[in-house]
What we know:
globular, mainly alpha, 369 residues, 19 helices
Amino acid sequence: MAVYFFTFTGAILFMHLAEITDNKKKRAFCLVGSAIILIIIAAMRSSTVGHDIRYYQTKLLLLSHSSESFSEFMSVCIRRGTEPLYCIVAYIGGKMGKTFFWTFLLNEALIIFFTYASIWNFRNIASPTLTLSCFLFFYYLRGYSQTRQFIAIAVVMFAVSLIVKGNRLVPFLLVPIAMGFHSSAIIGFALLFGYLVLNGVFSKIFLFIFTIGGISLLFFYKPIFAWALRFLPVRAEKYLKILFSNSKVEDMGYVGIVYWSLAILIMLIPVFVLHINDKTIYYFMLIMMILGLCGSFIQNVAGAVQRIFLYANVFIIIVIPQIPRFLAIKGRKSYFFHIIAYALMVTFWVVVFVRGNSGEVFPYVFASS
């Protein structure tokens, strides 16, 4: 636990310094310093830290060592069902060294780069320090296990942050890149189109329809997903098998239901209580949290399907930081609400990762030399 504690503290401190300084060079130094801490710690871990490593990363590392050419590696890698862009990352990492160090470093560098870029793009509506804190306690360690998907999630989140800033082209180009790491990232197109619709004149109608759709999803998720997954370009058969397996994920239990219910309540404040001129982003976050709640319910009967909802769930790192922003009384310090926000984050981390050992990432073990 000490390794994670000092890692998180260092990364958060550097991000805080980047947030408060007006000097561009100092800001860049602090952002890079914060990112490097997280990347290096991820790279120095043992291959026993992270559940999914043994299922595909070990095989890809061995394949990169035994393949006589890049084309041979890519042919086998893709035939095994791994997306092409991640095959390239695995090949480069494998050729750079015999251990997992370089592969882990490249994996985490991609996750952190796109996540940090997203956090900075959302800085006008959420404190970068609080947002990074929430990412660390909720999702950083998941990237140790669900590596390919969290690279894809980081890219999709960055695409959403760009469309929120008004960029209408690049976000739609980023989604195919995300799909190159994990095919489920095709959901990113739905998120981008959803935001554009919310930004139009029918936003409240769309919000109502989406809410009703979310409620329907709770009761009819199997036929809905069975229909939708058939449109995935690859891996649809795998997801359909998981959908009907009725397997429960024990490491989360019902903690997700509590947290995403709270997140919905938080987002109801800017949407229906406060007088904010542009509410599009808050409508969007509310919908993401509704989907997150749906995913938490479904997770208890078809656990692995919840991975599809991660593209919506991840935006809780923008929602939790709204607690001190919207609940603090004007003219008074918001320290109390910062404490509440951090208490929620730490509690989630302890329940899910320390006690539940989700993704088999606890305790941290350094790789042997």
